[in-house]
Amino acid sequence: LALQGNNIYAGIFGNGIYLSTDNGTSWSDVNNGLTNKYVSSIAVKGNNIFVGAGLGNGESGVFLSGNNGANWTKINNGLTDTLVSAITVSDDNVFAGTASGTFISTDNGSDWSLVKNGLPVNTYVRSLNGSQDRIYAGTDKDGIYFSTDDGLSWASLNNGLPVSNILTVANNGNNLLAGTNGDGVYQSTDNGASWVESSSGIINTSINSMLLSGNNIFSAAGNEGIYLSSNDGTSWSHLKNGMPDTYIYTLASGANNIFAGTSSSGIIVSTNNGLGWTTANTGLSSPNSENFISLTPFGDNLLAGTYEGRVYITDNNKISWNCIGDFGAARSINAMAISGSYIFAAIGQGNGSGGVWRTSDYGTNWIQMNSGLFALNDVYDIAVCGNNIIARVTGDGAGESGIFISSDNCNSWKQIKYNGVSLTGESPLSVSGNEIFFGTSYYSTDNGVTWNTISVDGMSGLTVNAMVFNSDKVFAGTNGQGVWTRLQSDVLPVELSAFTVSVKTNSIVINWKTATELNNFGFEVERADYNNNSAATDWESLAFIKGAGSSNSTKEYDYSDIKTNGNGKFLYRLKQIDNNGKVKYSNVIEISVHFGPQTYSLENNFPNPFNPSTVIKYSLPFDSNVKLTIYNTLGMTVKELFTEVQPAGTHEYNFNANGLSSGVYLYTIQASSTSGTQKFQSTKKMILMK
């Protein structure tokens, strides 16, 4: 871009020059005579506009327009290299950066001469800037050079600056800024004598792994190395001291050290929170050729897994490695997890022999633990949450990929589903306490048994490679878009502080409390019959209880499920609904109930005395053969009311005494269980008063 009065010129790589005279509201192309439209730079000197162009099929070099871009003329006299990448103006001179160095023109581009004394041989000048009687040249591989004598001689200015492709050099008041290809922005406040990185974020960076250590967040950014933030991701610093030129796959902490797995330097360690790094490769088979893609703390030890199929273990204090598993180069150790004395390895590229493997003797014996998993392509991730093991698996067929859970140390697996659909995606698993996130799509607060969806507002379409979370925030490292963060209260807008189910007389009472609520429309109470499957899908909605909307104070709720004959086991959960229609589920509670009578009984009739009707009430603890009879005081049968089989429970019989005279009568129940093991008989007195 370049400014000339009220004109704005934009050079487009492949489409030439465009002009706007209304602050960019509208644009028109001004390319008459511009035979090469692959524009790489623009500079303005008075009424003259200089353009550098290269590549493409047309003639390259420098082009000049003296009439606001209406016409262009090629001005290459003396320009022996026409692959022009940069143009700048300093005083009365025009400079052009090329693949052969820097050219100068003292006559508005009519003639050019090469000025490269002091520039490295075969350097490619990618950027130029004229500032305060100095010319700064950014190169493709040798950093920045400067000249104070109009380019006759050059000296380097690379103290603190990475040897990088300098794509742009700019001045901001008394400050110089250098934009690099892959290493961020650097700033100098002393005319380039020294440089410091000024990038406050890692916005366009791919994040492979993240580590939370105290108040520090470490991010592994592949070829760019490791970044550190100590202020919840507001700004980041690039950790370079001792950092080898290598690709960083993964991060882990142990014994107050920070470890990083690399592609060509083995494992590196920092003992001072990332300020300095050294290699820690004692005992590794091939540290410079193996790819260390997973690191997992194990008590006082650390586990390392490689793409080439090896598992290593070390004592963090000694940092000396031993190989405890070699699965062959066809199986990558994508992740590992620890539960008690067990080590679990998530292995990919198995072709039927990968999946999840387990050892309980530090690798002396490994056992494949794939019961319940489908034919595998890869197991990408594995994590321990409470007593459960969670694995992210890809299968060969439709519906075979997703999240699987094991509650028996991987002896058996079951696929997790949300509303009947498998949980799928390429995101990592991240665990803290009983909470587990599957990328930014799903989360669970009950050790992975039940799952809820997460709103991806602002992150739609982004691939999440790494996640960590503390008590307040969730941090997501993406593929190419840096680190994103969100408050946990946004992800979990309704925080349940209690959820209980208890048995009362002839009812089941559900109680729950919320510590905070945000945008909460309310709760649906759901019930399912127990069928030896704690992840039951046949849920029945019992009632809707309106929520408090948004609240920072404790709220209490309850609901009574009245089931007079509902004996057995039942599952209960809450379905929380936001005002925007989004839903999430609580954990599931199982309860056993028996509401029926425990013994046979015959109650006093009511009313008594009566005229002419009264109710006889009795209870049966079992399905029974029942006979109810009315007698007079002499023991003679007055009326046999019924003889039949009746179910267990409490029963009533409405006796009408029409046709009988006033007096005292007796009523008798005879009952025997249908199994023949229990018998019961009882007689009570009633008075008919007409």
How would you describe the overall organization of this protein?
- Strands 50, 51, 52, 53, 54, 55 and 56 form a seven-stranded antiparallel β-sheet that branches. The protein has a four-stranded antiparallel β-sheet with strand order 1-2-3-4, with no helix packed on it. It has a four-stranded antiparallel β-sheet with strand order 5-6-7-8, with no helix packed on it.
- The model has no long low-confidence stretch (mean pLDDT 88).
- With 690 residues, it is mainly beta.
- The chain contains one helix and 63 strands.
Brief summary of the model shown:
The protein is mainly β.
As residue ranges, the low-confidence spans are none
Supply the number of helical segments.
Answer: 1
Q: What average pLDDT do the residues reach? A: 88
Q: Rough shape?
A: elongated
- The counted number of beta strands is 63
Secondary structure category: mainly beta
What percent of residues adopt helix (DSSP H or I)? under 10%
Layout of helices and strands:
Elements: E1 2-4, E2 7-12, E3 16-20, E4 28-29, E5 39-45, E6 48-53, E7 61-65, E8 73-74, E9 84-90, E10 93-98, E11 101-105, E12 113-115, E13 125-131, E14 134-139, E15 144-147, E16 155-156, E17 166-172, E18 175-180, E19 185-188, E20 196-197, E21 209-213, E22 216-220, E23 226-229, E24 237-239, E25 248-254, E26 257-262, E27 267-270, E28 278-279, E29 292-298, E30 301-306, E31 310-315, E32 321-326, E33 332-339, E34 342-348, E35 355-359, E36 367-368, E37 376-385, E38 388-395, E39 402-406, E40 414-415, E41 417-418, E42 421-422, E43 429-432, E44 435-438, E45 442-444, E46 452-453, E47 464-469, E48 473-478, E49 483-487, H1 488-491, E50 495-504, E51 507-529, E52 540-551, E53 555-562, E54 568-578, E55 583-585, E56 589-593, E57 601-602, E58 613-620, E59 624-632, E60 637-646, E61 649-656, E62 663-673, E63 679-688
Antiparallel strand pairs: 1-2, 2-3, 3-4, 5-6, 6-7, 7-8, 9-10, 10-11, 11-12, 13-14, 14-15, 15-16, 17-18, 18-19, 19-20, 21-22, 22-23, 23-24, 25-26, 26-27, 27-28, 29-30, 30-31, 31-32, 33-34, 34-35, 35-36, 37-38, 38-39, 39-40, 41-42, 43-44, 44-45, 45-46, 47-48, 48-49, 50-51, 51-52, 51-53, 51-54, ...
